[in-house]
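Hello support,

Our group uses your service weekly, and this is the first time we've seen a run hang past the timeout. The protein is Type II secretion system protein GspF domain-containing protein. I'm not sure whether the cause is the sequence or the server load. Input pasted verbatim:
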Amino acid sequence: MSVKLLIILASALYVVPIVLWIILRQLRKKSGVQEETITSWMNRQPGIKKENPKLNRFYQRSYVRSAQIPIFRGQVRRIRQRLAVISPYDELTIRKETMKITYSVLLIVVGLILALALFGRSVSVVLLGMIGCLVLNGMLIDLFVHRVENRLLKDFRDFLEDNRHQFQATRMADEAIYEAAQLSGHDMKLHGERMHGVLTAKDPDRSLAAYYEVAPNRYLKVFTGIARMIMEYGDKTTAKGSLYLNAISKFVQDINFDLLRRNRLSYQLNSLTVIALAPILLSFPLQRWAETYFPVMGEFYEGRIGLAAKLLLYAVAIAAYVLIRKLAETEESRYTPKSGGIRWEKKLYEYRPIRFVVDRFVPQKHTKAHYSLSRLIKESNSPLMIEWLTVRRLLLSLCAVLFVSGMFVSAHISQVERIWNSPTYLKGGLMLGRIDDAERREAEERTSFDRRIMQEIDAGKSGWEAEVRSLVRESAASALSDVQQNEMATRIVEKLSQADSEYLKWWEVLTAVAAGIGVYFVPLGIMQFQRRIRGMEMQNEVDQFRMLISILSQFDRMSVQNILEWMERFGIIFKPALQRCLLDYDSGSAAALRQLKTEAPFPSFVRMIERLENALERISIQEAFDDLEMEQEYYREQKKETMDRLIESKANWGRDIGFAPVMFMLGAYIIVPFLYVSFMQMKDLITQLGQI
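Update from on-call engineer: The timeout came from a worker crash unrelated to the input. Re-ran successfully.
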């Protein structure tokens, strides 16, 4: 009955978008003037693709309605924030794109839940499918948004090629950018027109600073800044020709490297997320197959050991999925500082009782633990404060304690249910192979007989064992021998004793507490893993700094402070250290650079800062980095080698992590159950031989 109810609920959820569309369609009569205004405004915009006006109105009204529904409000806000970083959409366009992704994800997720409800025919399958759909929701959002970001990078590369040709014809950077924008796709056209507006504004520096705040990636930021410098100081002829054209060539080359890295990393790791989660779905048919051909294994799967193995399998699979997702992160929107919105951790921390409890767990200031935790938060690029992180850790720990305790209670209830209702097979024989219908009917008759006797027994009274034997003699057929009657009575007594012992034990409570303590440190482990993965990207960012400095060093009016400002604007991993260096630069440039080397002690980065130290007083910027042009071929090969090592390292990590759930499933659902069955059968066989 419960499965049918879940099917009905899943079907109802599946038609929610259709019903919503019908309702919104009926509401058009109440605001026809406003809808006509929206449609006419969209049709007047040259950059917006002409679509069905009814569909556009549906997206706009869906966005307004979904912002009022608590379930969808966070989903829509999360998608909007990521799209707003990637593309400079106007308000109506970003609402439409947000709802497109929202409805696509909703239909896929609800369709999957419906399929699990129809074919799984199990409450546990449907509930687990809902958990899987939550994971799938994040995957689909990343897929759609990641695709937009890659498309923008490719369009920007084509835009630079067109810009090269236009600049060679006009020798004017602003005109070349405008003409190249007209030849680009919709997203890149918006960015190109925004760049042209920056270069031709009355206050270009102010417009450039405003564009830096909304530019979706660092390539667009730096290219716009260089174009602004070309407009102000003019182009310069270097040993390799035009400075502007040479910068475009370096940008194209670096974007090609970045796209190649993304594609190779996606090829290596994308399938591993499916492999990591596959054991969760495969565990159900594997368990059903084992119970069909090896019936005794059902005792293992329904017992405490089987339940613990199942929970560990789910935990390992989800942990592997999260870690692989961290490995596969390439889009810059994951590394940019996260802001906007009110975090739920902050809301909880504002309550006085919760703050009192949390403050007891927060390390005291000016202690080593406080400094280490602060550094970990910064290096993992987490938006949390220490207090908010502690709120999250405590809440996860409490949920883990309640979940494990609930699973133990559920296991006891399931065990009692199995004792009362599961088919009772005789202990003789090895119980291998499929059970025929006659043997199953006999086992069900034994269970029915035992249940009838057990319902009349009160195990709390003294002498209930003798009462069981008396009822068995009265109810059993006269053809049964005394030995058979004694075996039946002994079996019923064992069942009642087992059912009476099914309660929450003290060691199970301790296990739940230990699980909570372990989960309390899980967020720190994930942050340390993310910090290590970011460490792998450091050399790649240093190589991009070299490309940037090789362009900037050609300008005559370039200083060390300007170089640091451009590096901070272009950087991701080293950005916090560069920001602190710029804040301290006016109070002492040499001391600020020394502190920068201390905060970011990566060897390649330190050598680059040492060159900037030389350029403070001794030599010029161009002389400090003159070998960048001379050794350009070497650095290109070094960058290729670094990229290959980075991808290979992440691929090895991903394979080890991705196949860990598969190996655990083979052990937990095949090897351990078979060993359990073998030992149990061996024990019964030895008992029978002893009786003989």
